[in-house]
Amino acid sequence: MAAVELPVMGWHRHGYHPPQGDCRPARVSLEWHAEARSSRPSRRPQKCPAQLCTQALSSLKHTWVSSPWMGLDVHTHYHSLQQDLATCTRHASHSFTRPPRKQTMSEDTWTLVRTKRRWRRNLAACQQLQRKTLLQAFLLTWRQTCFKTAVVDDSLSCRIEFDIILKKLDVDIATALHQFRSHGRQVTQALRHDDARFYASLAQESYQWLSHNTLVSSGKCFEEICRDSDNGESGMPL
Amino acid sequence: MPHFCQLEVGKVTTPSKLLADCHSRQSQTAIQQRTFDIVDLPSIRQLEDVLRQTPAGKATGYDVLPSLLFRQYPCELAEMFLPPMLKMYVWQHKPIAGKGGQLAVIHKKGSLFAAQNYRGIMLLPTFTKRVHALLRTQIMDLLHRQRPPGQLGGFAHQQVMYGSQSLQVFGRIMDGQNITTGILSLDLTTAFHGLVREWTSGIHVDEDLEEVLAAMDQEALPIADMCARLHLPCLGPQLS
Lengths: 238, 240
Known about the structure:
The complex is a heterodimer. By secondary structure, chain A is mainly α.
C-alpha cells in the first residue's frame, strides 16, 4: 500500500484556475493497494482436454474394479474418480493416430512417415523460433541504440545471451534437418519396397487369369518397373 | 457478499468445515428407504443415454472435466460413474462437489456498481447436472400420471401460451354466462426462493412461514418435528 499527498489543483472546465478566497494549501490523500496480477492464485480451475486415452482409461477401470470402492463415502468416491479421469485425458494431437491413406503401406513404413513428419514439424518450429529470436535481438539492439538508457554491461550480456540461444538453435535446426532428410530417404526406400511387394503379390494373384502372351509382356513390363524402382533416384524425400 | 448470502440463504464458512458438517449430517441421518425395486434404480443404459445428451461447451464451475468429454465418451464414463450414482440413489447422499460450485454473477438492472442489481447462478459439475436430468425424467414420469388436468408447467408438450389462452377462453365463457370469475396467480419460483428453500434447508423460520402455518392451524416447529406431525418423510437433508 502506498500513500501520497497531492495539492488540490483548481482544474475547471476551461483549464487551471488558482483557488480563490482560500489560499491555504489543501491536500488530498490517495491510497491504493499494489498487487501483481501474476502473484494472484488462479481461482478458476483449468479444464482438461476433451479426449480420453483409451489405454489409460482401461487401466483406470481395472484399478477401480480391484479396489474396494464400496466402503468409500460419496464425497471421496466422486472426487477421486474425477481426479483419476482427469489424468486419463489427452490433447487430440496426442491421442488420435490417423491411419495411412495408402492401403498398401506397411506398418513400419507408416511409422517412418510419422517420424519424418515429427522431425519436419520440429524443424519448422525451430526455424520459427530462430526468426523470432533474431527479431527480438534486432529490436533490442535498436531500442538500446535509440534510447541509450541501458547500461553497457547489460547490453553486452544481452547480446551474449542472444548469441548462445542462436547457436543452440543453429544446432537444433541442423539436427532436425539431418533427421528429416535421412528419414525422408528411408521413407522413399520403404515405399518402393512396399510397392514392389504389392505388385509382386498382384502378379502372383493375376497369374492364373492371364494368357501366356499377355503374361510374358506384362512380366517384362513389371520387371522394367521393378528395375527402375530399385535403381531409381534415392535421397529425395516424398 | 451480504447481498449474495441473502440471495442464496448462505452463511460464511470454510470448505473443510462445510464438508465435515455435510458428511456428519449425512452419516447421522436415518435411512429413509431400506428396500428398492430394481426399476427404481437407473440402469447403465439410462446413464449412457443422459450423458450422450450433454450439451457441449457448457460452463461447469469447478469441474475439471469439460462437458464435451461426457458427450464424446458416454459409454466409458457411464461405466465409471455408475457406482457413485448408485450410492447417491441408494444411500441418498449427494457428494458435496455436486451441491454447489462457482457463483457466476449476472447483472440484471440498474447501476453496475451496486451489488443489489446482480443475481447469482450456481455452476454445477456436468455429472451432477446429468444426474439431475435423469432424476427429473423419472419424477416427471410419475407426476405425469398424478398431476391435475390444469397443471402444465414443466411437462412435455406444454407451452406457456396454452395456459394463457386457456385462461382467456375460460374468462370469456364465464363472461358469456354472466358469472363473475377471478384468477389467482402464484409465482412458485419466488415462493420457492422466499419460503420453501428456507423451510427445507432449516435455516430459519421467518414470519411469512409462520403466517402460512397459522393459516393452516399449524405451529412453527423445526423441520423434523413438522414432518413427524404431518406424517411426511423428512426432505430437509436431501434437498439441502
